[in-house]
From TrEMBL:
<feature type="domain" description="Methyltransferase">
    <location>
        <begin position="49"/>
        <end position="149"/>
    </location>
</feature>
<dbReference type="InterPro" id="IPR041698">
    <property type="entry name" value="Methyltransf_25"/>
</dbReference>
<protein>
    <submittedName>
        <fullName>Trans-aconitate methyltransferase</fullName>
    </submittedName>
</protein>
<dbReference type="GO" id="GO:0008168">
    <property type="term" value="F:methyltransferase activity"/>
</dbReference>
<dbReference type="Pfam" id="PF13649">
    <property type="entry name" value="Methyltransf_25"/>
</dbReference>
<keyword id="KW-0808">Transferase</keyword>
<dbReference type="GO" id="GO:0032259">
    <property type="term" value="P:methylation"/>
</dbReference>
<dbReference type="InterPro" id="IPR029063">
    <property type="entry name" value="SAM-dependent_MTases_sf"/>
</dbReference>
<keyword id="KW-0489">Methyltransferase</keyword>
Length: 259
């Protein structure tokens, strides 16, 4: 894999975080709530945590700043984002990035876990999975989490299929919060960020590898958007207590517990 200098990686990740905040004005609040839940829910200062769809490691780095004794196994299949994360955060003793595709059965066997994990976490990532892959991911997680282990998934999860009027209200609340935080158009959005990456010669090899993987995967965009889809898949996987533990509009932190 092509290497990226620390300074270059930090610049690109800072830009990544800023454009993500344009869609999530309460992004840091959700990070804080999720890490609070890991700390309180696992009851350990040294939890073993799996970060699903970790991207460049924004959540993992924040978790380790709060819980420096933790171990985070960060999983993604995007070679460019993984390279940025390794360059920027590879010095963190408790962090290990792993190039794995969650859609391929048996991915948990390649995590290299030395014990069952205390928690699995994800932010703004699992909605990309089609429903059948989401069910498989949750089922595999149930096999590597300890009894009482937590799944914490922060994302936009719509309730339109069950309560359409409330879904409309939740979206309105989120839009108003976003407009208050960002009253004008964002200086750089998600598409702008990726266009800039593609135009940077220093990242050309990784960008080309990323395009090849995406074409092979036939990625169709956001697919598992409904809260009910996640709740049903978690129940089928054997999780028992399932509920929202933090919420702002349709932006919520869904928690699920193994018996």
């Amino acid at each position: 894999m092509a290497e990226i200098a620390f300074e270059v990686a930090r610049e690109w990740i800072d830009r990544w975080d800023r454009q993500q905040e344009g869609y999530l004005p309460d992004r840091e609040d959700r990070f804080t709530a999720l890490i609070d839940a890991v700390e309180a829910g696992t009851g350990r200062t040294d939890p073993l945590v799996i970060d699903l769809g970790c991207g460049p490691g924004s959540l993992a780095a924040r978790l380790l700043r709060r819980l420096p004794e933790a171990t985070v196994v960060a999983v993604d299949t995007d070679p460019l984002l993984l390279a940025l994360g390794r360059a920027a955060y590879g010095h963190l003793a408790g962090l290990r990035f792993t190039d794995l595709d969650l859609r391929r059965p048996g991915w948990t066997g390649a995590l290299g876990l030395t014990r069952r994990a205390d928690a699995a976490v994800s932010t703004t990532a699992l909605h990309w999975l089609p429903e059948h892959h989401l069910r498989d991911v949750y089922a595999e997680l149930a096999g590597v989490l300890r009894p009482g282990g937590l799944l914490l998934n922060g994302d936009h999860m719509d309730v339109e299929d069950t309560t359409p009027t409330l879904a409309k209200l939740e979206r309105a609340l989120h839009e108003r919060a976003t407009n208050r935080r960002f009253p004008r158009e964002m200086p750089e959005n998600w598409r702008d960020w990726w266009d800039a990456v593609d135009a940077d010669p220093a990242l050309s090899v990784l960008a080309e590898e990323r395009r090849g993987r995406n074409e092979a995967a036939a990625h169709h965009g956001s697919e598992s958007l409904h809260l009910s889809t996640h709740v049903t898949a978690l129940r089928e996987a054997g999780f028992t207590e399932i509920g929202t533990v933090w919420q702002n509009g349709d932006n919520r932190l869904l928690a699920a517990l193994l018996p």
